[in-house]
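**Polypeptide and fold**
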Amino acid sequence: MAKRAFNFSAGPAAMPTEVLERIKVELSDYHGLGMSIMEMSHRSKTFEEVAERAATRFRKLTGLGDEFSILFLHGGATQQFSLIPMNFFRTGHPVDMVHSGHWTERAMKEMKPIAEIRVIASSEAKKFRELPKVQESDISENASYLHYCSNNTIFGTQSRKFVFKKNVPTVICLLYTSDAADE
């Protein structure tokens, strides 16, 4: 392997050499099928097994139960911040937002032309150095949905516990890191 660089940014980071070697092999021939995973039908048994394994691992990592749907969508977080209200916002029913910092600000920027937003909890006054406190009573029964961004990568805060309200859909944008502070 060539000289390795290390990237310590909040986003992409260096991957272990053994993972890169496996990707190199499987990129042209996934498990002896003669094609990469990117070339096969998303309806094929092989691809469905990969997606199910990923969802199972994600549930284990996050502690999410079967009552939650896990969607694998392209476009990155910013695109999802606009696609979610396009699909879930109902006129006259604001989106209840938990404002945890940078990613919530990005989400609200994308949502603003589409949906009415109601911030129900925020730690902005504390410069997002801690997670906002949310109680079930803060969530409107009239909300289109409740929106959380799980972390603020700038200050390293990350929520792994969420408050829910019966009959109000909840969208959690999980921007997971293993070293973020729990509250």
The chain has four helices and seven strands.
